[in-house]
Amino acid sequence: VGLPLPERLLIARLANAVADNAKSASRERLASKSDDLKVVTGIGDDCAVLRLRQTNDILVTTDFTLENVHFRREWHSPESVGHRCLVRGLSDIAAMGGRPSAAFLSLAVPPKLPQSWVDRFFRGLLKLARESNVTLSGGDTSRSPSKILADVIVLGCVPKGTAVLRSGARPGDRIYATGAIGGSAATLSSLYSSKRKGVNSQLSQRYFFPEPRIRVGQILRQKKIPSSMIDLSDGLSTDLSHLCEDSGVGAEIWAASIPRAVTGKSAKPIALDLALHGGEDYELLFTASPRQRVPPRVGGVAVSYIGEITSRKQISLIHQNGSSSLLEPRGWEHFRRRDS
Amino acid sequence: VGLPLPERLLIARLANAVADNAKSASRERLASKSDDLKVVTGIGDDCAVLRLRQTNDILVTTDFTLENVHFRREWHSPESVGHRCLVRGLSDIAAMGGRPSAAFLSLAVPPKLPQSWVDRFFRGLLKLARESNVTLSGGDTSRSPSKILADVIVLGCVPKGTAVLRSGARPGDRIYATGAIGGSAATLSSLYSSKRKGVNSQLSQRYFFPEPRIRVGQILRQKKIPSSMIDLSDGLSTDLSHLCEDSGVGAEIWAASIPRAVTGKSAKPIALDLALHGGEDYELLFTASPRQRVPPRVGGVAVSYIGEITSRKQISLIHQNGSSSLLEPRGWEHFRRRDS
What we know:
2 copies of one chain form a homodimer.
Chain A: H1 5-32, E1 37-41, E2 48-52, E3 56-66, H2 78-94, E4 99-109, H3 115-131, E5 135-143, E6 149-159, E7 174-178, H4 183-192, H5 201-208, H6 214-222, E8 228-232, H7 236-247, E9 250-254, E10 262-263, E11 268-269, H8 272-277, E12 283-288, E13 297-298, E14 301-310, E15 315-318, E16 324-326
Parallel strand pairs in A: 4-5, 9-15
Antiparallel strand pairs in A: 1-2, 3-6, 4-6, 7-12, 7-14, 8-12, 9-14, 10-11, 13-14, 15-16
Helix pairs in contact in A: 1-3, 2-3, 2-6, 4-5
């Protein structure tokens, strides 16, 4: 009688996780006094009840994290899966210049999954939630026919009318990227070739536990720097094409200026293709008017000037020798092997 | 190059569905002028941007709908699956006395799923969205390793501080249920025994296309009738036990007063067990002070007085012959055959 055991355990675990998280979040909130979006009633009722400061808009984003599509149990620790399923939504909020506030987790697990996997998954998710000042506020649990399935919703806020969209880039605007890119693709490529030992530990740390650029996004928005912004989750070539399409413009980017992740003691940059097409870096890509002063570092993170927006609706890659070629959006498909 | 075909098609379909829906919703909204929660930017950016009327609280709910857990492709039409995956969240909003405003769909489908299935799924989902004045505002798409997976998030609103919780029931309060219950369990039971032809068509219509009690929930909340409320999604015995636990009370309910769904020309009530333990009726269960006048119909839907809240923390079922027994929460497990 009652719910089947795994489901009951899961629900209890989810409820506990939410309660613990809510407690520590409310402590932090008392300290910070910034109640932009407050959780009035968390898990345990039909809905969560949230209260928003009236001067804010609400941001909503939702992302699936599916076993064997977005992660593999033999490669990713449960903590990494928990971290990564939350980071996707946090990065989306960052790309709007917003502050994440509340997360909701829908989690389905197969009946035979060890409880320790679920515990460690929550450890990873809740650690990132605390670091990001996000309250896990509810969700849904279910048994799954075979694989682990998670869907994470993140709610955030931004002062009314100030969300940074993808559609604001204008011809002549400069294109910038934060941090270094391609590191996740390089790590994944090593996992595929089973050269795990060869993976630079800092690179793989960033792949398994990527850091969302929440603070950078907020600073940029507060300084009114970006005309448009997107996060680099599907790869530079694909995300830049989204931004250009939505803005009705084209772009040219300079191969030599792309901030490639480096590997090994020699700090050798990874292959250009990985930086162009590899996804899951969770850096920010943004444009700014040439009249706008853009500092070389924002919130402690390097900002690189990598190209310019054009009125001609195509994306060109300018090579180091001065020649140019069309850059096709080679959409990042998780776990598709890349040649590098 | 680019995303694999099924994913690209899905994304295009989702984008179109959202655009169409947003158009018709904004037309309706212009007519109704009730911008409680407005979609400022819909699908196509990193996040959706929503704007809330400042006198409101936000309601958030999320529900998985998984193939072979919540539906079977051989039993449920794609339209029914689309309808049912949205109704779960709408019913949660109704149970808070709220108004649903925006929905988000995360959908993962196996590579071989025919496009016509996806089209018909959207038809069912969007029809209910329009009828409920809800805007499909974004989501996520992914390929799935094998089964169809959907997660639907519904956002709604309620005047500040007026959300009807599960935790407000007090000893002496009366217990009420809307509509008739057990019909979904009866239909499912017939499906299991392959007696589909024998299923009363009105019953099965309500099972395949359940109607969320949004209006009833809002009227009850506006009239300040309920001290607590929950929706009947997991079955009366389980949902009543949730309400009692959260309120720190017990209950006794009267077998003869439970409004059982009726079947066939003779309008024979379904078995009591189906009404006690069957889920997915999406009716409302609420409590009210004995001083509160509760009309026999609310918003055109019958309201039945079925029992009373007690201080003793157990749930008793009073049988027609006057004897009583403990009512255990026999949690509704989808597709578990019930004896009836």
